[in-house]
Amino acid sequence: MIEFKNIEGLYFVGIGGIGMSALALYFVKGGYTIAGYDRSESSITHSLIENGCAVTYKDDLSVLPDLFRNVSDKSRVIIVYTPAIPAENKILSFFRSNGYLIYKRSKILGEISLNTDTLAVAGTHGKTTVSTMIAHLLKQSHIDCSAFLGGISKNYDSNLLLGDSKYTVMEADEFDRSFHRLKPFMAVVTSLDADHLDIYGDEGTMIKAYNEFCGKIRQGGKLIVNNKIRKEIVVPEGVSCYTYGLDSDADFRSTGIKRHKDYYSFNIKTPSTTIENLHFAFPGIINIENFTAAIAVALMCGVTEQEIRKAVLLFQGVRRRFDIRINFPGLAYVDDYAHHPEEIRACITCIKEFFTGRKITGIFQPHLFSRTRDHADGFAKILDELDEVILLPIYPAREKPIEGVTSELIFNKMRSGKKRLLAKEDIPGKLDTPELDVLLTIGAGDIDTLVGPIEEKLKRERVK
Hints:
3 domains, 14 helices, globular, six-stranded mixed β-sheet
């Protein structure tokens, strides 16, 4: 157990990350002095500053606030870091060499999960959307919740929600085995596609790690698993397991899905009843499957059918998750965080459902050298389903370059006759805006910094 009683402040190394920023906001609202470092400015760091955090973008000890720089005060502070921070970071090295209390983000989140009924969502993709949907269903009901989200909810314009409830929604991040720190009351597993093989080595080891996470569920708790992966999951003793999905044998399943002009209608069949004619004004059948998982959790928490009906209709989505920035006749622009072949497949499927028969141009920034190496064939195959593709250089994040691994590895495997390799700084200047119909930006790196400039250019040159 971490003792917070005599702590005055927390310093976050990598404060601009989506998970780190939610924790920083949580402790700001708890009355602690909060400061942190990140290597670049962003809308997230600007929001943190507005909320009272001291943020620096310079990896230099001279910029540390006195509370954190004076070694004599080290018993009064806690240092939180993310594994994405390189070992040579000067600020983190200073804290380590001087014996400060240093914890990974996952450890802090795990401490919070011990003191609440945690609803944890795991999976190689879909966890941000599902956790945000669960949080929304609970917030719009008499149950309420708090939530640490892996994206900015468009309903609440935040990745941190605070409420007066025993429930806390958390993403269970498989990277670096972080989700093993949690002790959830309920858990959802959305998917098990091979990812983070730089951590696990192979898919089998990764699946074992997911089953270890499931083993952390409290006695008497519940596990909700996508029906497509049920055979891979080992249900712990003392835990009730339910499946969800579109399949006819799932415990919670969506049926009667109909596409209308600007919304879907569908039913949810549960083990005890059917909720009929829900209206969902958000793209993609995959998101109906995601909402099926969220509704299963909400019902188990005591949310009523009428509360679910209203909340589903009002759901606005998550920033950078099928985020429709422009949608006018003859021109649309969608931004998405997808960075694994199966995530991109789901995104492109949604795009084709929503913009049937239209020309789709994609800009993709690969994320991590190791992921590009491991999934180059998968990336090439799914990107070939677009009408035109622009590939950007790999965003390295925490990794050093791997010899022979560049975006050309994907580029050369693609069969498309309409593909280009461009530098990030070439965008949006080299976009042929008169020829664009539906534009899609995809990636988990710093491609998000292009979203504003692209949107401005399209509105300036195409939207009258």
